[in-house]
Design goal:
With 333 residues, the chain is α/β, with parallel strands linked by helices. The protein has two domains: 153 residues, 2-Layer Sandwich (Dihydrodipicolinate Reductase, domain 2), CATH 3.30.360; 152 residues, NAD(P)-binding Rossmann-like Domain (Rossmann fold, 3-Layer(aba) Sandwich), CATH 3.40.50.720. A six-stranded mixed beta sheet has the order 1-2-14-13-11-12. It has a six-stranded parallel beta sheet with strand order 4-3-8-9-10-15, sandwiched between helices. α1 packs across α8.
Length: 333
């Protein structure tokens, strides 16, 4: 199983050298030299290492909805590798009589009209079931309502939908859930650091301008939830920025030539850059985090599912969690 590592460094880069860096075409070119503070985080996946929870008592039934998609399938594969009991059933709006193959298992695909009956039956047979959702943005709220109606704990990895309604639905139903727009553990740690900075130093970047660019595979329809969360922190730090100003890159040619995405990862990546500049244009800050592939999210999702299963078994008072809660708990694989 792949493990992920985060390299975080701060460097002072002369403006004359900035043009050779990824995302450089996004920043404005100035005639006079100056220095910028650049903070970069790059996710490096080490595929030589493996881990498993099979030897522990953490094995439990897990159902991954959205297995027909690449992210859902990656999570299903990670669940099998972790020794969890993957239920060979998934929901998809792409109805098909052809099963999916995850490891040695054949996953049967059920259409939306069958969801309630199938899930109720599975939950009756497996009362310690945890569901993971990686479906589509427009299915978030309907799926959450279904999980809450049946009472099954779930991890919502799908971004989009009406998030306020999502939280209200889960709260009213008193169901256990992990809800997070970002499942990559190292990226979540970065987000947590941003939130701490925003809380402790409100207004620290007052007057600064902000530019944001995020690049994802062309199949990602919505704006990155991670980008929105980081921007929210900058807004608390005093930056004026509207979410509509986010520059979305979905064109593969631009991703190759302008963003610097490796060609083999055009179908699965997440490159983010946040560029801040002082009112007099003498100081710049850049925060950048780049992810190639889906392993970092799949691994984090399995940690979230294990975390949630423990909370259900211990009958914890708190019911709704996010990935920061998972990180704080520790003991991740």
């Amino acid at each position: 199983m792949a493990s992920s590592s985060l390299s975080l460094h701060t460097t002072f880069i002369p403006q004359s050298n900035l043009r050779s860096a990824p995302f450089s075409s996004f920043t404005k070119s100035r005639s006079r030299p100056r220095s910028i503070v650049r903070i970069c985080a790059t996710m490096n996946l080490d595929r030589s290492k493996s881990s498993s929870v099979a030897a522990s008592n953490l094995s439990f039934p897990i159902m991954v909805n959205g297995c027909a998609g690449k992210m859902g399938k990656a999570v299903a594969e990670a669940a099998v590798s972790a020794g969890l009991n993957l239920i060979p059933v998934t929901f998809s709006n792409l109805e098909s009589n052809n099963p999916l193959h995850v490891g040695s298992k054949e996953i049967q695909i059920h259409g939306l009209s069958e969801r309630e009956g199938v899930l109720s039956s599975i939950f009756d047979e497996h009362p310690n079931l945890v569901v993971v959702d990686y479906t589509a943005p427009d299915a978030v709220n309907d799926n959450a309502e279904l999980y809450c109606k049946i009472g099954v704990p779930f991890v919502m990895g799908t971004t989009g939908g009406d998030r306020q309604m999502l939280y209200k639905t889960v709260q009213d139903a008193n169901v256990y859930a992990v809800i997070s727009p970002q499942m990559g553990k190292q990226v979540v740690a970065f987000l947590a650091a941003m939130e701490i900075m925003a809380e402790q130093f409100p207004g620290a970047f007052s007057g600064y301008s902000l530019q944001v660019m995020e690049s994802h595979q062309a199949s990602k329809l919505d704006t990155s939830g991670t980008a929105k969360a980081v921007i929210s922190c900058f807004q608390k730090l005093g930056v004026s920025f509207d979410m509509s100003q986010i520059k979305l890159i979905r064109d593969p040619k631009q991703q190759l030539e302008m963003v610097g995405v490796p060609e083999e990862h055009l179908s699965g990546h997440a490159f983010h850059m946040y560029h801040l500049e002082s009112p007099d244009e003498t100081v710049s800050f850049e925060f950048q985090h780049n992810v190639c592939g889906r392993s970092i999210y799949a691994e984090g999702t399995i940690d979230a599912a294990i975390f949630l299963s423990k909370k259900v078994q211990s009958k914890a008072d708190k019911k709704i969690y996010d990935m920061i809660d998972v990180l704080r708990e520790g003991n991740m694989r």
